[in-house]
Write a structure and sequence with these properties.
single chain; alpha+beta; seven-stranded antiparallel sheet; 4 helices; disordered N terminus
């Protein structure tokens, strides 16, 4: 059951993050001074938006990159590695659920969109020595009844400071614990 709860939480958080970013009105197109270097803007990016949301700092943009966006993922991973960030093999907020560093791309029907869309999603986290977390989500998305669009990639970068990351992880662990207790009754 833990896997199902974690999978549900992962999918829910992915949708919520993307929906919040998509619907957020307070955006900037130039990098604000307080944004960390871990939010990496690729040179060929378009539709650039910076957000501050719930204590996190976020960046989203689009790039032309053919699926599976190997060069994009490698570029961002290499820059983070140079800056002493290390990959997390499990989703930070869902311990026990492998990140895309391990499992690669996921594909599913996104029924939250009307009409239904097909999503190809790559999501993973990195952590630095301070305990800050940076999450990257790479998303290809197209209508279920449309031709596949596997060269327009949306990139989401989310930076969570160490104190907020610690608090968020504790809250998720508490929710999981309560869910498991209800299941066992």
């Amino acid at each position: 059951m833990r896997y199902r709860i974690s999978t549900f939480i992962f999918i829910l958080l992915s949708f919520v993050t993307i929906l919040i970013i998509s619907g957020c009105e307070k955006t900037e197109q130039k990098k604000p001074a307080n944004y960390p270097d871990a939010l990496i803007l690729l040179p060929n990016a378009t539709n650039i938006k910076y957000y501050e949301l719930g204590g996190s700092l976020q960046l989203t943009y689009k790039v032309k990159a053919d699926y599976p966006a190997t060069k994009v993922i490698e570029t961002i991973s290499n820059k983070l590695n140079q800056d002493k960030w290390h990959i997390l093999k499990e989703d930070f907020l869902n311990p026990g659920l492998s990140s895309s560093h391990v499992k690669g791309w996921s594909s599913y029907e996104n029924v939250t969109k009307s009409p239904t869309q097909i999503d190809h999603l790559w999501k993973a986290d990195w952590e630095n020595q301070l305990g800050d977390i940076v999450t990257y989500v790479f998303l290809y998305q197209y209508g279920k009844k449309e031709s596949k669009d596997l060269n327009n990639l949306t990139v989401y970068g989310i930076f969570i400071s160490a104190p907020l990351a610690k608090q968020s992880r504790a809250e998720i662990e508490e929710l999981t614990k309560k869910g498991n207790q209800k299941k066992n009754k």
